Amino acid sequence: MKIQATTNIGKTKYVFQIEDEDMEALHLAAVLGNAPDYCPLCKNDKFFALDSNKDKEGNVYVNVVCKKCFAKAKLGRYKAKGFFWHKFEKYVPKGTQKDTQDSPPDNPFNDDIPPAEEPSELPF
Questions:
Q1: pLDDT tops 50 at residue 65
Q2: Which of 14, 20, 36, 110 is deepest in the core (most CB within 10 A)?
Q3: How many angstroms separate the CA atoms of 16 and 12, rounded?
Q4: 9 confidence band (pLDDT: 50, 70, 90)
Q5: Distance between CA 37 and CA 59 in Å, rounded?
Q6: How high is the mean pLDDT of the chain?
């Protein structure tokens, strides 16, 4: 069985194609196709990015990142099979221990896009 899920994250359209007979694959396609599109921390509902990273053991972690405040919603997996999106977590730059609201966060992406006060100020 071929499963296809399409979603827009930010201004990028993603098409996920999974070929599998397992119901878990169908559930994964449904979850990926319904990524979070609202950040309750900064009220952003337009500017997001799909991000991933790999640890030393080869585990891949998938996140939806708010491009306004850089909060992350992680893709989680239930122990008894199935997937879900975690709630957005506030971004705290590495090496900082304090949680400040006064200063804007460092840009975790290396794309030279400064954090925006309002979505209309983003350069894309």
A1: yes
A2: 36
A3: 13
A4: confident
A5: 25
A6: 78
Helices (H), the chain: 23-32
Domain extent at residue 19: 2-121
Compute CA distances 117 → 67, 71, 100, whole Å: 11, 15, 16
DSSP H or E run through 60 = strand 60-66
C-alpha 86/C-alpha 84 separation (Å) is 7
Q: How far is CA 25 from the centre of its chain?
A: 20
CB 64 within 8 A of CB 50: yes
Number of domains into which the chain is organized:
1
Degrees, nearest 5: CA angle 86-105-116: 95
Residues 6+ apart with CB under 8 A from 100: none
For 1, the token pair is 């069985």
- pTM value is 0.65
pLDDT by residue (tens digit) across 72-122? 999 988 888 888 999 999 988 877 655 555 555 566 555 555 554 544 444
Tokens coding 57: 């053991």
